[in-house]
Write a structure and sequence with these properties.
Elements (H helix, E strand, L loop, with lengths): L4 H12 L1 E7 L3 E7 L3 H18 L3 H16 L1
């Protein structure tokens, strides 16, 4: 199944989010997800991919990654 640019943007944000487990005295083990830096990391990665696509003349991927970048910026 091919992902849409929006799905890919959400996946990248999720992958770059930091996860930490902590023990709450009453609730037990909880997971904290920190996405505060994820958007910047995802944009950096996508910019690198876009540059490689452009340098290698891969237009179909270039256009897809440009759309992914727009979706990340919206999040």
């Amino acid at each position: 199944m091919t992902q849409t640019p929006k799905e890919k943007a959400e996946e990248l944000i999720d992958k770059f989010s930091e996860r930490k487990k902590f023990l709450d005295e009453y609730a037990g083990w909880l997971m904290h997800v920190d996405s505060s830096k994820a958007k910047g990391h995802a944009l950096t990665a996508v910019d690198e991919i876009i540059e490689q696509c452009y340098n290698n003349g891969i237009n179909y991927s270039y256009n897809f990654w440009q759309e992914v970048k727009k979706e990340i910026e919206k999040l």
